[in-house]
Amino acid sequence: MIRWLLAAGIVLNMKTIRIKGLLGVCLLLPGLAACGASGTAASGARDTARPSGAVVTSCGLETRVPAPPERAISLEQNATEIMLSLGLADRMIGTSYQTDPVLPSLAREYRKVPVLAKQYPDHEAVLAKEPDFLYSTLSSAYADEAAGPRADWKKLGVPAYLSAHDCESPGLTPDEVRFDAVFDEIKDIAAVFGVEPRGEKTVKDLRARLDRAVREAPKNTGAKLMWYYSGTATPYIAGHGGLPSTVSELAGVDNAFDDIHQKWPAGNWEKIAERDPDVIVLADLTRGGDGDSAEAKKRFLRANPVTSRLDAVRNNRFIVVPGSAMDPSIRSVGLAEALSKGLTALYG
């Protein structure tokens, strides 16, 4: 049948080729009289799925998903954890680029999903898995040397979703990371897979946690924070527009470098000393690089002649937060919670 259709010049995408039995014949030849209107979900519990599928637009590219995907690949950890939080492990045939230990609540489901590559799988490796949906929160996943451009996958009939926080075209990326955009992305993925009730519940729970963190943060502290992500010789700190800037605003404190209109500018210790932040928020990164862990940052700050004189260092005013929570993801609310608890410990 497939050979006949190819000879007739009909182009099939990978998802169509995988369809088996009578259902496959019905989809390929919709006019066939013998085709009935039966069929059950292939695996796992399902919310009611729309027969017409979903249409979502991500980073300027309209993504049409004719039916809830069954062979999805998440191309990096943030996308993986959003999918697992929505109960979609049974729809996933692969994941890649794990940067941190998976959230404990998701570890069991994560073990069900094959890991395709330590970092990004290349185009041929992804193609060989015959996916029906690709998802990443980082545009680097769709680089030529990685899985390949989304437009190319669209030509193959494979929808590829990208988070609005890191579009291929910088002009399409919002200037500021806001929680509503994180929540909208979760709802988009839920819509793609036909599990909207799960998406609504996930977002409702996250909003409740965020509201509680903001409500419990101490008020009128007047504190100015430096968000210290990585690096020692050249520190990378939070400027304006990133998630730390948004979380600072919600907690009622100032990002000491919010006047720098870059999300993660390279800092200079002498310039930092001039501003002398009241509190230093330390990203605790697990990748093992120079000054990545929170403890490594503390050791450096206390030993360096310039940083050791900072008021926050001399008075041990540090707040440790998970480094992975500083990027827009399912973990983002955890950043607000960690900051709120840290400020409470320092200011009561």
Automatic annotation (TrEMBL):
Protein name: Fe/B12 periplasmic-binding domain-containing protein
Xref: Gene3D superfamilies: Nitrogenase molybdenum iron protein domain
Fe/B12 periplasmic-binding domain location: 71-348
Pfam families found in the cross-reference section: Peripla_BP_2 (PF01497)
Record's signal peptide: 1-36
Keywords, ordered alphabetically: Signal
Family (UniProt): Belongs to the bacterial solute-binding protein 8 family.
Alphabetized InterPro entries for the sequence: ABC_Transporter_SBP (IPR050902), ABC_transptr_periplasmic_BD (IPR002491)
